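Lay summary

Proteins are chains of building blocks that fold into shapes. Our project writes down both the chain and a compact code for its shape. Here are two examples, one after the other.
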Amino acid sequence: MTVVIFAVVALAVLGLLVLVHRWLWIRLVRDTTRPGGAWRRAGTVLAFALPALAVAALTAGRAGAPFWLQRAVSWPGFMWLAVLLYLTLAMLVAEPARALLLRRSPRQPPEPALPATPAPAAPAEAAPAASRSAAPSPAPQSPAGLGSAAAAVPAGAGLDGAASAASAGSGATAPAVPGFDGAASAGLPGLGARSDAVAGAGAEPQVREGAGRGTAPQAPTDTPVGGDGDAEAAAPAPAHDSAVATGATGVTPAAGGGPGAGDGLSRRRFVARVVGGAAVAAAAGTVGYGTYGVLRGPRVKRVTVPLAKLPRAAHGFRIAVVSDVHLGPILGRAHTARIVDTVNRTQPDLIAIVGDLVDGNVHDLGPAAEPLRGLRARHGSYFVTGNHEYFSGAQQWIDHVRELGLTPLENARRPLPLFDLAGVNDVQGESEGHGPDFEAALGDRDRSRAAVLLAHQPIVIHDAVRHGVDLQLSGHTHGGQLWPGNYLAELANPTVAGLERYGDTQLYVSRGAGAWGPPVRVGAPSDITVVELASYQA
């Protein structure tokens, strides 16, 4: 059943990773690059290579890969996991801004609705206007005794291009053409004013059939008969007017009166690049700062813990708590040396290493742990196992740290002059039959003496309470390591970081001196805690 649950969880996580990478590829590669371009190809390659490196980094150690290969895939693979977290969060936050920037405000007031009259299919009228205007168009003959005039209608003028003719001699007026006068008098933005061709004796203007129904009227090229031609009326309408006019053939106005489709694509790409670039910069800056915090080494944190049973002579006793160093393919010997120097500068009375010292075997990481020989404390240095020691073989590390001068506490107690110090194995050891045994470590002790317990995971606090422990020192949580991981850590641990009280027992949880996976910490800085015991009798 456990295997089935693990498989289901693994598949769910893998599916989530695939979906997240697909979405990031759309937002950061497809939306920001041109199809077929070098950047598009490079981004697509990275979209496959980076998650593959991340999976390799997570599985190489457990699979027994050579240590050089673990180091080769760990840096890019684990660092990408950290960047992926904050890049995804940044893109999610930027989504509303992206949608807002892509909204286009109209550049003019909305046009009033015009009567919707379907344009008749007229294949013959699809011929270019230029070919029709090349031949002279005779002016229509008016009745005898009357002057004649022809209305000059610009080709492609659409609604506003139709002009009405005014009578000059007899007062005859050109009849209104449906769909023209309304458009001209409505004062639509971008539409031209009507122009009248005035002739000596009024005559009806010639208007092509279908004008105002989606086809452009034909303009005569000859000068109107019997009068001075209006140059403005005969001039071609501006290109943008004919494009906006509803009567223009085959032209659809751009949304909001703005640029065309090609300009819109450029706008979307520009917005995608700005938003994506900002998200990448935010994620890279966050991860970079978090990496610097880990690689520079842990800072010292000091906490005073009063214990009711602590004698006056033990007042001010200092315990340096070191947890979760996580020596491995990324953090090595130099990291251990920084920790040892920091601990020794605090001049502790006792040093407690509370598990997860390593992520690998002694053969690969023995040299990285070698600086631990330099730890100095008046009452010695002690070690208990964490869950990660059991992934590579806990017993080999128990034997090795003993060679380095540390004292392993395997479900054991060491009576000190002023209080009892006990340690239990990690709960991960239950899979090998070497789990925590509180009865062996604390069962027969004198409960009138103060007791300090070293246990890697905070979840054993309730066992500590039952056995009368005064103070439990733990690690394991990393304080969440990568925000918002602290909220997830709270679901599995009674205390994520800091000092809390459970009945008569106090629990202190260190954030740890290293980092697991990516050497990055955000919102949970690494620390070495100096716990100073205080006596109520002092």
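And here is the second example, written the same way.
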Amino acid sequence: MPSAEEYLRPDVLAQVARFDLKARFVIEGFLAGLHRSPLKGFSTEFSDYRRYTPGDDPKTIDWRVFARTNRYFVKRYEAETNLECHLVLDASASMGYGTRAVTKLEYATYMAAALAYLMVRQHDAVGLITLGTSIRHVVPPKSKRVHVFRLLQILSKIRP
């Protein structure tokens, strides 16, 4: 198995750095981020209009829509939030299968390392769960760069 430093070599980072991970589904969260949220808020991403109701801030009225419809409408924007990701890695005996150069487990650990790096780079939280015949490691998600190195240390020590 590679050491923790080998997972994030400059050539690997250069290839991975051009990717962005976006959630396919709407997610809920408390922090602003890259992913769509069902919560409505202040953002640059327009969502839809809704009828003005007393108590709404008059600054949010869309006067162009009022000019066309003679009704008050308020623009709504889609809030963006951060994603919490749990990487689940199979470290069972079957993952020891592969060519002499690389096993399935090594491919999986490289992929997990790249995904962890991407997630933290875009300020999303990432955690790790490794499984064999039972649960071996459970690392709760965090979005700090130091956390990636902790995950890499665990990945470098995994054996099928």
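What can we say about the second shape? Confidence is low (pLDDT under 50) at residues 25-41.
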